[in-house]
## 1
Amino acid sequence: MNTISTLNTAGARPLQFPIPANVYAETVVSVKHYTDRLFSFRITRPQSLRFRSGEFVMIGLPNAEKPVFRAYSIASPAWDDELEFFSIKVPDGPLTSQLQKIEIGDTVIMRQKSTGTLVVDALTPAKRLFMISTGTGIAPFASLLRDPDTYEKFEQVVLTHTCRDNAELTYGQELVAELENDPLIGELTGGRVTLYNSTTRETSGRMGRITALIGSGKFYTDLDIDKLDPETDRIMICGSMHMLRDVKELAEGLGFQEGSLHHPASFVVERAFVG
Ligand code: A2P
């Protein structure tokens, strides 16, 4: 599939309902469909919105008196003047069944507060940062990978992304490929980011859940790196509930401790939100 459209506000459709009080109303500037289950989109950024790279916001559509809001990780970095999101499409999902139909010029609404645990300040300093993701759980890492703070704090970053099918890996592949050419952070990222992806259902060059790949040691031999060690490494985890549980258990088994902004430590976890 992989269709992309660019800004053309001429075709903006009228709002169906008034914008609720205390929410931002922003305009869609681009939409890109990856598969029949995944798409990304960018909207204008409210001037007063401040957030940390890795955080999420609540977004919705102005299509009801009381619109449905769902949590979405912001996939763009804190310095960007647009906001990017990476979303699943659920045919009967209260929000995504409609959100997947958005076009350039449409309005997306957003609550004004951002929050989240996947922020570099919730981790103590270390040498390597491992970002473990499945599906749309890659979104907060798309933000962090484009933020200079990440490279100030860590020398090496390894992003893992596991999906059912090959086409679902495209977003992450494009993200990492574009990092080195990025005029703003390309110099910082050169040679410091490694993408490690796998599929679990469709045949590909590397198959298996990340837990199995780490558990068997294949992860380390494929990348030719030392084993995960709380002395030198930090871990961020985002994806499906079961993956979070299993990777958290794995990390704790290796001696990692869960951190927060109040008590920074060696790993942090956040569920990838599904609308
Ligand atoms: P699998 O296909 O074996 O279930 P989903 O699309 O359902 O959100 O899943 C995204 C990816 O996360 C899939 O590749 C899925 O593998 C994988 N996954 C699901 N549960 C776990 C788990 N407990 N540990 C590691 N990976 C998991």
## 2
Amino acid sequence: MNARRNPSEERLLAYAAGVLSPPQAVVVAAHLALRPANHAWVRRLQAVGGELLDETSPSPLSADALARAMARIETDTGVVTAQPLLNDMPELPEPLRRYALGPWRWVGPGIRVRDVHAPRDGACRVILLKIDPGRETPRHTHGGVELTCVLSGAYATETERFDVGDFEEADAEVIHQPRVVSDDPCLCVAALDGQIQLDGWLGRLMQPFARL
Ligand code: ZN
């Protein structure tokens, strides 16, 4: 599997096993909704995990195990969506439609952010980020892991381009300055752990204003 612009295999394994932190799982689910081949790979992992579980757990199943398994399968296949669709952005992939959204906030020239009211994990939370064509974020590094999936449009860093469905994993080792290269605004969903750290003297001056 090509790791470039995809989640790492470790992260997909954690997602398949249901142990990924909830905000990160939301971003991975959005990516999988846009990348059927990766979604199929995760389903195969889950099937293998289920078979292993069958072999290693002889204890009797609880009374509602079948109902819970069926509900999970229906959700995974997208055949039945038990969760009501809550928000005002029908263009979002299905895994993001089930969450309420906060108001758009201006955080810089051509940059708007809105909170996704998905489960948090400590300081890690989910946001939508919309950046106008030709605009870029300040050059920054990260207080924790930052996972981003492109939902529409495209952006480029110094070394790579990210189109719809592409996934970027960044952490304190990565300094980047994403710039929108599509003709339309670029909409992304991101799980941010802690605050971004702006680079350079101007960045440090602007840091108090850069809270996402
Ligand atoms: Zn970043």
